[in-house]
């Protein structure tokens, strides 16, 4: 087994592997906290003119559209040594077209089921019915889950509800406070239980686990089951609990049947990191007032767009190929850089999606490989003051994906007042939204001037419609990227290995071999090399 260096894995398709290529006009368009708790260098010698800024940024989009802008990954922006030549798109197009066609054929045989979620009317009816039953009188909603069962819930909440949602009085919230128990840290869990203890009759617990066997979620579930049973009795336990799990089998299904509580289905064929647009993510969103119809409409529009075989009109294909092409050129760190606190947790969600889907050691033919880009999330403008020094002057091994909001849901004006020092007067009369987007543009310009590839995903505003598009865009791009890398984007064998050794350490029957191996590991390392 060997790791690729400056090349990519072989594929058995007739087209085989060619040098990654891209080009085109430089843009691809398509229509369409406290919010959630959880534990040869190109040099610029002068300031650019207004015309240069316009060319640098591209044009604005019409209402409701997201736009992927990629002019600043091309060779004319960052030089031939690091950029992609526009003419190469013609050589890339047939392979991308074949992958998109293959995916659509496979969908007809029941694969890639996450793409069908926006059209699943029965699932949406079931979620809405559960919301109607649980929302009245509910002041606190607690999600018990980890990984894909948690990150999507957090991302939808922080994107689509005010940042101080949990701190607002009941009359100013669209639904209950949301708490996501996405870890088993005893201090965080214990403090949350202390907070909710006197409020259990006004609290709903949503356990999310396809199998019910995930150790972290199972442990949380057993604690909550005991708490509710002791405080509220068997009837209260059933009334305050909703379990989202496999519709037919599994430990969580058995426990739900024994308790007599309501359930929602984890859809078959949809992995956790692709499940945010199922009952896994929609129940908490609906409970907290998110417009599910608009969210799913945005996702459905994107799902239709990514069937386009012409990559210049398919933003998921464009995005996947660009990142794959740079991966093959040694730029294997993919930095998502949202300039909006509302989008920060969507970047966190992307990290799991990209890392868990694409980091593999076997290709689709079962041959050993070592592949996988490393996703990183940063927050603008905050991380300009913690990471950009590395990004601009450190190794040129990264691709930057900026997220920019054209119109914020609210803005704050900087007041004019006598006595302001001359050096600060340039800020007076401006808004924080203008400042934040200026910071984004300045950072991108500085990176591009140092030959760092940058692209931007623009949102006209953060809304259910645009967030639905964003989620489906990245899910579809992940599938395409997996096929370009010739790996299975849907499994996660390394995660299972960690689970198995946890079972052994915790004494689960049938995992004695894992317990012995861990014991040997500890004996060999403990106390010998410490300072």
Tell me what you see in this structure.
The protein has helices at 50-57, 75-78, 89-108, 121-134, 151-160, 186-196, 215-239, 251-259, 279-287, 292-305, 315-328, 344-358, 388-393, 432-449, 464-484, 493-505, 512-525, and strands spanning 27-30, 66-69, 140-144, 177-181, 203-208, 241-245, 262-265, 333-338, 360-362, 368-371, 374-377, 398-405, 454-459. It is an alpha/beta fold. It has two domains: 27-32 and 48-106 and 295-484, Rossmann fold (3-Layer(aba) Sandwich); 121-266, 3-Layer(aba) Sandwich (Rossmann fold). A six-stranded mixed sheet has the order 1-2-13-12-8-11, with helices on both faces. A five-stranded parallel sheet has the order 4-3-5-6-7, sandwiched between helices. Helix 8 (251-259) links the parallel strand 6 (241-245) and strand 7 (262-265). It is globular. 44% of the residues are buried. Residues 12-25, 29-33 and 40-62 have low confidence and may be disordered.
